[in-house]
Amino acid sequence: TQLLEQSPQFLSIQEGENLTVYCNSSSVFSSLQWYRQEPGEGPVLLVTVVTGGEVKKLKRLTFQFGDARKDSSLHITAAQPGDTGLYLCGETSGSRLTFGEGTQLTVNP
Amino acid sequence: DAGVIQSPRHEVTEMGQEVTLRCKPISGHNSLFWYRQTMMRGLELLIYFNNNVPIDDSGMPEDRFSAKMPNASFSTLKIQPSEPRDSAVYFCASSFGLVLHFGNGTRLTVT
After folding, report:
1. Chain A nearest CA to B102, separation (Å)
2. CB 3.0-4.6 Å disulfide test: which of A28, A37, B4, B94 passes with A43?
3. Distance CA A82, CA A34 (A)
4. pLDDT digits (tens, 9 = 90+) for B33-79
């Protein structure tokens, strides 16, 4: 079973700061997804990355997939309180999706 | 589209009681997943179905847990007998392809 490690586990920053969170694997990802989960709700898909070296942008969020497809990062520019949540990376294998433990982000106003 | 619907939202029960969690997937989705989320272990896949057939139940903790999907619009996760360590948030998700759509979960507390 592929082990997904996310770091940091917790991150608390002030509004307007930039941040990066990471997702690493012990082996090659077939494809990787990032989700955000808010309190009392289920995770919601942000992006899927498939190709090594791929970069995707979603407004202030930039997702990178490592060249070797064993790591990924999520960079948020000028964080806002609305970005607060649990950020999860998930590895897809066929129909199965396995998650890391997540990064709990708190953006303080 | 109402999304994935789970019931109940909260369940409090005593140790030894049977608990049944319910899920209605999004119409047209052909895969359904049950996950459990705790602070200690994060989001764990318990079981998933393709076209109503259980494909992988290796994440089911033990024989006290069982899941069924009698038709494309309904699934249950049953715990019998329940134990305090089963306390967690249980999520159901459905998909057609790679994008999972999650319900808002059932928060289970076993005292």
Report:
1. 5
2. A37
3. 17
4. 999 999 888 999 999 999 999 999 999 988 999 999 999 999 999 99
